[in-house]
Each structure stands twice: as structure tokens, then as C-alpha cells.
Amino acid sequence: MKISDYFKRKTIRFTLSLFLVALFCNMGYAQQKDLPFGINLAGAEFAHKNTQAVYGQHYVYPGPKDLDYFKSKGLTLMRVPFLWERIQPVLGGELDPEEFGRLKKFITQAKERNLLVIPDMHNYCRRNINGKSEIIGSSELSIADVADVWKKLAAGLKSFDNIWGYGIMNEPHDLLESTPWINIAQEIITEIRKEDVKTPILVGGDSWSSAERWTIFSDNLKYLKDPSENLIFEAHVYFDNNASGIYKKSYEEEGASATTGISRTIPFVNWLKQNNLRGFIGEYGVPDNDPKWLITLDKFLAYIQSNGINGTYWAAGPIWGKYFLSVEPNMGEDRPQMKVLQKYKSTKKVSKK
């Protein structure tokens, strides 16, 4: 055999082996990669009605204690809400170094614990300007403004490898006819991809991201374009009568049943399947005043898990523990919801057809 032929064959074999390794790795990722369940760690999005919110008094970012607790329960995905006004005090301006530093510190602390993070802009397509809530599309607040802040956020966060996805806007609702959510979301996606082509982008639905009303208000989101083809669509589900998650009345008075969560999520799940898209449930939660709520929660989680959809429970956090839907430990003991949540730690990614 000629020396040249020997090296040609070695090169062909080596190239083929690399191809097969890449092929099987990609197949394994598409079909077997686990999708984590987790928790919303509220606190950084808290505002104060009458005065300027003071960090450590009116709002706070979660920290190691929160992360360690939920990691010990097997919940590994942390959705952390933050406010646009604080992260970028001046429209079109630079990100506030101190506030952005708090967000990055939290992401770093999560990374040190092998936990994943969703930075969630918790603004409902609005921003407080001079004491007034302005809606995107008004004369005071444009699509370009929100696209600008997300471009800067992506530039500052793209080096983190534990960001599960950018939550570009929590619960858009009651938008201007001239400025529909699809237009806003598309411009944000476009600007993010100028800085970061890797990180997934989470797109909430219109009408408070309702899973039940998804096909009525959010069907057009299937037309969004992402050059990286890495969008995940985010819906929210609550089980009280008006689906607000406030739970003012008893289980019976709210008209709930064991399958309320399933029936409200079916429209979203079917939409994902029909359009071959990826989905995520960013918020769901129940009170702890009646064990029947836990049955509803359990059946709901089993349903989304069986359909390859993961989610994050609302809510917990360092200054959230006194509220109804918290799963923070109470007097040294886990809250009742935790027994259900611990059953659902991950699901398998559904491969595309």
C-alpha cells in the first residue's frame, strides 16, 4: 500500500467516525435530553406604590439559601423576575451596573450549583414612566425601546451557559391594536440575535399568557421568525374560577375539579403539537388550604410531563414566603405543595417530526 493511500484511508475513517459521533450525540440530545422543572423565585420584581423602592427593604434578589433549598428538592430551573425600569433606568441608556450586577450575581450563584436560570422581564408590556404605566406602542414607549434593552441584556448575559432561556416579557395583555404582541416579540427576537445566536428565547402568549385562551389570542405567534430556530413558547395556568391565581374562595366555590388544570392546558398542548413547536408552563400554583388543590396540581403536572412540557411553579423567594402560593419551608417544614412538586423533576424533550 502506498503511503499516500494509507493516510487517505486514515483520514476518511477519522472523518467518518467524527460524523457518526456527532450524529448520535445530536440524536441523543433531540430525543433524550431532560427538560427540568423548577420554581419562580419572586422578589426582584417587587415595586413600592408610594416611594422609590429600596433594595433590601422593598425588593430583593434570591440568594444561596433559596437555591440550596430547591436544589435539595430536585428542582433545578429557576425563573427569576426582574423589572425593566430598574435594569435600565433611562430608555435607550446603558444598563444600571448595580442592578444588572445583582442579576448576574444570582445567575453565577446558580451556575455554581449546576442550576439553570430564566431571567424574566416581569413588565406585562408596560413600563413606569414619570409615575404612569405606559404601554408599549404608546407615544412614550416604543417597540424599539424594549428591543434595545433586550439587545443589551443579551450582550451582557450571553457568556453564561446556565441560562435556560431569555424570558422576554411576562404576561402581555390588553395591548394596543396598532402594536400587537407578535410585532413586539419579533423585534425583540431580531435584536437579541444580533448579540446572541445560542440562547433559547421564551415567548409568552398574549392575554396574560393564558394556556386556555392560547389559540384565541396567541395563534399568530407560530409565524415568529428566529434565525437560530430556538424559540420556546410560554403559557401560564391557574386553577381558580377566573384563572388569576388569587384563589379568593374555597375549592368548591372556585368551581375546580381534579382535571381543571388539564382541560385548561389542552388548547396550548394541541397547538404545540399541530405546529411542531416547543412549549413551557412558566407559572402555575395552588393554595395549601385544601388537599383537593394538590390533586388538581398533581394531575396537571402529570399531564404536561407526559407531553414533554416542563414548567416553573409560582412562587417562592426570600420575601414571598408569607403568601398563599409559596412553597418556602414553613416553621421548619416543607409546605404541602412540595410533596407534589418533588414528583416532577424533569421530562423528556419531544423530538421534532
Q: Could you characterize what this model shows?
A:
Helix content is 38%, strand content 15%. The protein has an eight-stranded parallel β-sheet. A two-stranded antiparallel ribbon has the order 1-12. The chain is built from eleven helices and twelve strands. The protein has helices at residues 3-32, 64-72, 84-87, 97-112, 143-157, 181-195, 206-209, 214-217, 260-275, 291-306, 337-341; strands at residues 34-36, 38-41, 77-82, 116-121, 126-129, 132-135, 166-167, 201-204, 231-236, 279-283, 310-316, 346-348. It has 353 residues and is an alpha/beta fold.
Provide a compact summary of the structure.
It contains eleven helices and twelve strands.
Characteristic key phrases:
two-stranded antiparallel ribbon, globular, alpha/beta, 353 residues, 12 strands, 11 helices, 8-stranded parallel sheet
**Helical coverage, percent range:** 25-40%
The major β-sheet equals: 8 strands, parallel
Poorly predicted regions: 1-8, 10-32
Q: From the alpha-carbon coordinates, what is the Rg to the nearest angstrom?
A: 22 Å
List the helices and strands and how they pair.
Blueprint: H1 3-32, E1 34-36, E2 38-41, H2 64-72, E3 77-82, H3 84-87, H4 97-112, E4 116-121, E5 126-129, E6 132-135, H5 143-157, E7 166-167, H6 181-195, E8 201-204, H7 206-209, H8 214-217, E9 231-236, H9 260-275, E10 279-283, H10 291-306, E11 310-316, H11 337-341, E12 346-348
Parallel strand pairs: 2-3, 2-11, 3-4, 7-8, 8-9, 9-10, 10-11
Antiparallel strand pairs: 1-12, 5-6
